[in-house]
Design brief:
Helix content: 55-70%
Pfam family, one: Response_reg
Keywords: Coiled coil, Phosphoprotein
Protein name: Two-component system response regulator
Domain Response regulatory: 6-123
Shape: elongated
Number of helices: 7
Coiled coil: 160-187
Number of strands: 5
Radius of gyration: 20 Å
Strand content: 5-15%
Order of helices and strands: EHEHEHEHEHHH
Structural class: alpha/beta
Length: 222
């Protein structure tokens, strides 16, 4: 069973959270509610999230302050944040959102189809990153447990071949996703995130190639 990604929804108004859940339910992922910035930060202490939808105007800790705390934490600083706001004070206000670390800034009322499409891109990138980390961890465990290499009837070589094939499938999906983003004239943040994933894939491919017999070994990308 493929593990579902978690999406954090942060808004102080229950009706807004309900609307977001209705829009994103079609993605079939795990939706987690938070009614304040403090509650969102608490959820981020224990769970990993693919993307955060964060309301700007909240009593107490607003969206900008919440985002600042998220970006200061090593565990959470790379999680994409999409700001949602019911007000629009022009370019300066939007710039403040991006300066706080947001990958996108959407004004309410927003198009449900657009929001769902944007969130789905980050969920897909998150799932590919998870798969990449799992394969890298599997390779590390195999190498650490079998430093002798060929002493165990060529099992490491077989594992390398299997991982190389799996990586090729992920590389193909990432390339197709990048082309799709280009074709749909996606926002720059999503394109940049896809490019970051492709760089990670390239690093892992080089590491796998270097582990082939006769080429020595190198450290795997984190």
């Amino acid at each position: 069973m493929v593990q579902k990604a978690k999406i954090l929804l942060v808004d102080d108004r229950p009706e807004n959270l309900l609307a977001l859940e209705a829009i994103l339910s079609a993605l079939d992922q795990t939706l987690v509610r938070a009614s304040s910035g403090e509650e969102a930060l608490k959820a981020l202490l224990t769970d990993d999230f693919a993307v955060i939808l964060l309301d700007v105007q909240m009593p107490g800790m607003d969206g900008f302050e919440t985002a600042a705390h998220i970006k200061r934490r090593e565990r959470t600083r790379d999680i994409p944040i999409i700001f949602l706001t019911a007000i629009n004070h022009g370019p300066h206000h939007t710039f403040r959102g991006y300066a706080a670390g947001a990958v996108d800034y959407i004004s309410k009322p927003f198009d449900p189809w657009v929001l769902r499409a944007k969130v789905s891109v980050f969920v897909e990138l998150y799932m590919k990153n998870c798969k990449l980390r799992e394969q890298a961890a599997l390779l590390r465990l195999q190498i650490e447990g079998d430093p002798g290499g060929a002493d165990h009837e060529g099992e490491p070589a077989g594992l390398l071949a299997e991982l190389s094939a799996r990586l090729a499938a992920v590389e193909e999906q990432a390339e197709a996703l990048s082309k799709q983003l280009d074709d749909e004239s996606a926002d720059a943040a999503a394109v940049a995130t896809a490019a970051h994933l492709e760089r990670k894939l390239t690093g892992l491919r080089r590491a796998l190639d270097a582990l082939e017999p006769g080429t020595g070994s190198v450290g795997l990308p984190s």
